[in-house]
What we know:
Blueprint: H1 7-28, E1 36-37, E2 43-44, H2 46-59, E3 66-68, H3 76-79, E4 84-92, H4 94-98, E5 105-112, E6 115-123, E7 128-133, E8 137-141, H5 154-160, E9 162-163, E10 172-177, H6 183-193, E11 198-203, H7 207-214, E12 219-222, H8 228-240, E13 244-247, E14 265-268, H9 270-277
Parallel strand pairs: 3-4, 10-11
Antiparallel strand pairs: 1-2, 4-5, 5-6, 6-7, 7-8, 8-9, 12-14, 13-14
Helix pairs in contact: 1-2, 7-8
Amino acid sequence: MKKKIRDKWIIHALNTALKAGTAILEVYEMSDQGISLKEDLSPITLADRRSDTIIKNMLRTTDIPVFTEESSNVPYEIRKTWDQYWLVDPLDGTKEFIHHYDEFTVNIALIEEGVPVFGVIYVPVYRQLYFAIKERGAYRIENIIETFSDNTELSNILDHAIRLPDRTHAGIHVVVSRSHMSSETKAYIGEKLGDEPFKIVSAGSSLKFCRVAEGEADLYPRLGPTMEWDIAAGIVIVTEAGGTVRQYDGKPLLFNRENLLNPWFVVASEEITKNIILK
């Protein structure tokens, strides 16, 4: 049975992302960011750890399981019993963070029966908050500094947020990873777009989803490795803005799989999906 997404959970998750972002920025200004390597040799920083702790402590008050990149050793035998849980990347774009590119994010999604039903992506440096609620739309708030008060109504937040998509441009814009552009991605773009003129736009972390959602980009093919926590929040934001996110073979992406490594996928605007991807 599906559970209702409570407004107070949404506001609490938005505040959680904002507080985690503040902690990340504090480390961003430090000369020593506490960089080390995880078992898979990917980097982790003090900012990852602090953000992870804040998010877990705050979201646990909802009595919904919390599953984060930094605590991804929860056995599948336990995870598969969850019909609802928070899926979190406490610092998406650690490489961008380390190299002082400003395009790193905090990603929080609520998964229900294998499907993301709420997602928030916060961009700490830009003070941009992207979020979406299933069947209620996708939004962006600019220049956000303070968290929402306990008596804030979600309807008031939505009324003052920017509904996505909100931007248009001429031609086709393809957004690609700043750190992970692959030869397969280049080949895919050539195959699908053919002689269509297009512009390449680079972005880091989950901001690529946001660029499609807000209308700055039309297509984001990811023919390379990602994990479930990298994309869950972005999927809700794109789909609620009218776009689609599908596996390379056209199938939908499901979550809480035993293997957390995602298949290749393609993010597209509604127009691109109809006229090019499925043509």
